[in-house]
Design goal:
With 196 residues, the chain is an alpha/beta fold. The protein has one domain: Rossmann fold (3-Layer(aba) Sandwich). Helix content is 33%, strand content 24%. The chain has seven helices and seven strands. Strands 3-2-1-4-5-7-6 form a seven-stranded mixed sheet. The model has no long low-confidence stretch (mean pLDDT 90).
Length: 196
C-alpha cells in the first residue's frame, strides 16, 4: 500500500468530496497535540496539521515518499523527523506522549489493524494519549461514498481492506478509553482522544 500515485492531487480530491470542512477536520487535534513533548504522527499524508503545530519534537511515519515531499513544504514551527517506511516494519525504542492517526486506521483489514493497534500501545508512554481522526459507519449514502473511496484507493494505491471497520470498537476492545469526541460531516467523520 503506497499513496505515491495520488499524492499530487490528494488534497484537491479530499476538498472536492468534503468541502470547506476538510482543513478543520485535518487540524482539529492541533490544540491537544501542542501540549505534549514527544509526538508520533502515523500516515501524516501531505502534512496539513503541521501548519498548526509549534511542537518541539515530531516523528512522522509515512509510507509515501511523495506525500513526505509535500509535507516538507508546509510552513511549521515544529521540528519534524520524517520516516519513509511501513509503520509495522519501523523499529523504535522511543516512547511517545501522543500518537496522532489522521485517516490511517481505515487503511487496514482486521488482521493488520490488530497488529497496528498492538504496536501503537507499545509506543505510547504510560500516560500517553491516542488521537484518531477517521470515518465511522453512517447513512447509506455515506457508506456508498466510502465504498467508492476504498475501490479507488485499492486500484491506485494497493489498499488492502475491503470495508470500513468499526475503529472505535476495535480500540475499545484493546482497552483504550475514550476521553474526548468531536463529530463532523453529519457524524460521518470523528476525532477521538483515547488514553490507555
Amino acid at each position: 500500500m503506497n499513496f505515491d500515485r495520488v499524492a499530487g492531487f490528494y488534497d484537491h480530491l479530499a476538498k472536492s468530496v468534503f468541502g470547506s470542512q476538510w482543513y478543520q477536520v485535518q487540524t482539529v487535534a492541533a490544540r491537544e497535540l501542542n501540549q505534549v513533548d514527544q509526538l508520533l504522527i502515523l500516515g501524516g499524508g501531505t502534512g496539513v496539521i503541521l501548519e498548526e503545530l509549534d511542537h518541539p519534537q515530531i516523528t512522522c511515519v509515512e509510507m509515501s515518499a511523495k506525500m513526505i515531499d509535500q509535507a516538507k513544504q508546509r510552513p511549521t514551527n515544529a521540528t519534524v523527523k520524517f520516516v519513509n517506511t511501513d509503520f509495522l516494519e519501523w523499529k523504535s525504542d522511543q516512547k511517545f506522549d501522543a500518537i496522532y492517526c489522521p485517516f490511517f486506521l481505515d487503511c487496514f483489514d482486521q488482521k493488520t489493524l490488530d497488529k497496528v493497534i498492538g504496536k501503537m500501545k507499545t509506543l505510547l508512554s504510560s500516560n500517553g494519549d491516542l488521537h484518531v481522526v477517521d470515518f465511522q459507519r453512517g447513512s447509506f449514502l455515506q457508506q456508498l461514498v466510502i465504498w467508492n473511496m476504498i475501490t479507488f484507493f485499492k486500484v491506485t494505491s494497493g489498499l488492502k481492506t475491503n470495508s470500513l471497520l468499526n475503529i472505535p470498537g476495535e480500540l475499545k476492545k484493546r482497552r483504550f478509553k475514550e476521553r474526548l469526541i468531536r463529530l463532523f460531516m453529519k457524524k460521518w467523520i470523528f476525532y477521538r482522544k483515547y488514553t490507555q
